[in-house]
Amino acid sequence: MIRGYRNVMENCRDNMMVLKDGLEKTGRFNIVSKDEGVPLVAFTLKDHSNFNEFQISDMLRRYGWIVPAYTMPPDAQHVTVLRVVIREDFSRTFAERLVIDITKVVHELDLVPARVVSTNTVAVSGEEDGEDGDKVIISKSVLETQRKITTAWRKFVMDRKKTNGVC
């Protein structure tokens, strides 16, 4: 019984190392978890200027992965991590596939214009015809404008991918 459990845990640890090594080879992540103990890989972006861990987590869902992103507890709230727990059914093939999918997501996010951190109150102002033909003043924050641009850019990238495939 102990030997079987040991084999399972050694296999989980080996798969954890495959995932960890693959993420390190991308050069985009810092591994913050330890190699000992629970088989998991917690990692954070080295560069947060264009996107963050929450965006990576969100986009990985398109590939069928649920990789949670969360901020650390008080005194370390400025740190956000992605976490993958290696279970018994998480094979070496899965580990390699996850690295490939994370690399794809990071590449896609690299194509999206850099996010705006500023919270200026008004970025775009203008007039538009309302329902009754009256003029309506539009005022959007920089963040709202950036979100619309990002959404449009993602749609453009996704539509382009759809046309590149072979039917």
UniProtKB/TrEMBL annotation:
Q: Which GO terms describe its biological process?
A: L-glutamate catabolic process
A GO MF term: pyridoxal phosphate binding
From what superkingdom does this record's organism come?
A: Eukaryota
Q: What is the lineage of its organism?
A: Eukaryota, Viridiplantae, Streptophyta, Embryophyta, Tracheophyta
Q: What is this protein called?
A: Glutamate decarboxylase
UniProt family annotation: Belongs to the group II decarboxylase family.
Spell out the SUPFAM superfamilies in the cross-references.
PLP-dependent transferases
What's any one GO cellular component for it? cytosol
